[in-house]
Specification:
Length: 72
């Protein structure tokens, strides 16, 4: 299995203990809930597995990209 990275829209919880990743599998919207570092989600198109990073790190100084970074 090869590894690669992509940019996704994320949404941190109010207490910053978890976050959601908004992405898609093919054309279908998909939301991944990340509660702990190392959590894994699969079922994506092309048999891709998503591994969560530590919510404390991701949400520590999180600020949303203005205008959702124009979807880039």
């Amino acid at each position: 299995m090869s590894e690669y990275s992509e940019c996704y829209k994320i949404e941190c919880s109010a207490d910053k203990s978890s976050y959601k990743v908004h992405t898609h599998s093919g054309s279908a919207p998909l939301e991944v809930q990340c509660n702990n570092a190392g959590d894994k989600s699969s079922g994506f198109q092309y048999n891709v597995e998503f591994t969560c990073e530590d919510p404390a790190v991701i949400c520590a100084n999180f600020t949303s990209c203005p205008d959702d970074c124009h979807y880039r």
